[in-house]
UniProtKB/TrEMBL annotation:
Source organism of this protein record: Cohnella ginsengisoli
Compartments where found: Cell membrane
Keyword check for Cell membrane: yes
Name the record gives this protein: Carbohydrate ABC transporter permease
Transmembrane segments: 9-31, 66-91
Keywords carried by this UniProt record: Cell membrane, Membrane, Transmembrane, Transmembrane helix, Transport
Recorded superkingdom: Bacteria
Organism phylogeny: Bacteria, Bacillati, Bacillota, Bacilli, Bacillales
């Protein structure tokens, strides 16, 4: 079933408008990450930086243990995925998990 031309134009306009609304925070975040301090504190705020700088990305590796943070996140994600998969398997096959005591 095809929509009439007027209806499809309205639909595409609504889709485009909602895409802009949903993508604006992502664009704002990425643009702010490339701004210098002078652009960050301008009033009224600017969306795009006047001078691009990648200084913040180089500071990530020297100021904080960023690689350690990524490793910790990977461990949490791994165990969450494994735990979710095992719990789904227990539910699917009606396996009763054995209680494990650490004492």
């Amino acid at each position: 079933m095809r929509l009439p031309l007027k209806s499809s134009l309205v639909l595409y306009a609504l889709l485009l408008g909602s895409a802009v609304v949903f993508l604006f925070p992502l664009i704002w975040m990425v643009a702010r990450s490339f701004m210098g301090l002078d652009d960050l504190y301008k009033v009224p705020p600017v969306v795009f930086p006047t001078q691009f700088t990648a200084e913040a990305y180089s500071e990530i590796w020297t100021i904080k243990p960023f690689l350690s943070y990524i490793g910790n996140t990977g461990i949490v994600v791994f165990f969450s995925v494994v735990g979710g998969t095992l719990s789904a398997a227990f539910l699917r096959f009606r396996i009763r998990p054995v209680a494990v005591s650490l004492s």
